[in-house]
Design a protein that fits this description.
two-stranded antiparallel ribbon; about 200 residues; five-stranded antiparallel sheet; alpha+beta; elongated; single chain
Length: about 200
């Protein structure tokens, strides 16, 4: 039973999901909490638990979180996003949040920085995924696949373009034909997933 709690906690909000909150009062067996943007309310003790992961900057790899539930994952991604860290790892999986603007972190300096590096050695970045796929292809001499998924407007098309851009940049072939083929494949791949939605006026 969650009694004597103070500070940041997890509580089941009005929508039924665990969200971060602050304990205002926990006397008399009643727990009064405040949820940012929602307000104050009393919650049953069984619906409140202590927040152990409270790094204001979030963590780079969510495998490091001791609390693995949907609220904790979303809160970690949110904390990183407000600091313009749009990429977060979950092991070898990269979670990307569409910032709806471009950052200056996709140039040749970043290509060279991530080329040949293992996933997790450097800050989370989509080039790390490209580097991992390219390294595996060169080592095994087998085709590799990068799965990019998400809802409409999540940034799948841009992520695909960035992966292609990285692969074209690290291509060591003396002929420019392969580089051209990689870059020219982008609009073809894009056409398979393009549809007009409420978030994309394609």
């Amino acid at each position: 039973m969650a009694t004597g709690l103070s500070g940041p906690v997890w509580v089941f909000g009005p929508d039924g999901y665990q969200v971060p909150a602050t304990v205002i009062d926990s006397s008399d067996g009643k727990i009064k909490v405040k949820i940012e943007g929602v307000g104050e309310f009393e919650a049953p003790a069984k619906d409140v638990s202590e927040m152990t992961d409270n790094d204001p900057n979030g963590v780079e790899d969510m495998i490091q979180l001791s609390e693995l539930h949907e609220g904790a994952l979303l809160e970690n991604i949110s904390r990183r996003y407000v600091r313009e860290s749009i990429y977060t790892y979950t092991g070898s999986i990269l979670v990307a949040v569409n910032p709806y603007k471009m950052f200056d972190m996709y140039g040749m300096d970043y290509v060279r920085k991530y080329e040949g590096q293992l996933i997790g050695k450097l800050p989370a970045h989509i080039f790390a995924i490209g580097s991992g796929a390219f390294a595996a292809m060169m080592k095994t001499k087998e085709d590799q696949c990068v799965v990019i998924s998400g809802e409409s407007g999540a940034g799948k098309t841009e992520s695909t373009k960035l992966i292609m851009q990285y692969l074209a940049a690290v291509n060591k072939c003396s002929s420019s034909l392969i580089t051209e083929q990689i870059l020219e494949a982008s609009p073809i791949l894009e056409s398979f997933g393009n549809a007009k939605t409420v978030r994309n006026n394609n």
